[in-house]
Amino acid sequence: MIGSLVVIFWGATIPSAAEHLNCAGIKADRDRMACQSQRRRDYGKVLERRLLGEGFEASVFVEEAGEPGSGAYPRLIIWAVLAEGKVHEINQTAKVLEGARSVGYRMLVYVDKGEENNWYFDLTRPGSTFLDVVPWQQPPWKKPGTAVGK
Question: Cα separation of 101 and 27, whole Å?
Fold first, then answer.
């Protein structure tokens, strides 16, 4: 039943089982947090299918927590080839900023498969202006002279 609803409303926004879960009525903190986490994971799964269906070669990842002081969590990560203007195209086509905010993400990160730039959006602030664009850096395992990279 939910799958057919997703197909019917596919063009408008990204409906998912996540939107049908209402975590607000759950009294126990642990259960409410688990419900909210499930909503975010469901959103990520549906978003990935939507992006692939729209012709974007992308993978979607969810990070619920990170190291203290390392940035806003939970975060949604989209890994795709990000040619000129692609980030804004994906945001507009799939309404990513609005959808990610609606299920409680605090940060959206686009990681470029083409190894150019990573884009960061602070979802705790309104609007669609990116927070930062960071040049891609070679991971340690790819650097020459390292034990793994030899």
Answer: 22
Across the range 56-60, mean pLDDT stands at 92
Which tokens go with 80? 């795709």
How many helices and strands in the chain, by DSSP H and E? 5, 5
Cβ(102)–Cβ(133) under 8 Å? no
d(CA 101, CA 38): 15
The token pair at 16 is: 């998912």
CA-closest candidate to residue 104, choices 48, 64, 47: 64
Prediction pTM value: 0.72
Label residue 83 by pLDDT band (50, 70, 90).
Answer: confident
Q: Are the CB atoms for 63 and 77 separated by under 8 Å?
A: yes
The answer to whether 108 touches 97, Cβ cutoff 8 Å, is yes
Least Cα distance to 105 among 92, 117, 96 occurs for: 96
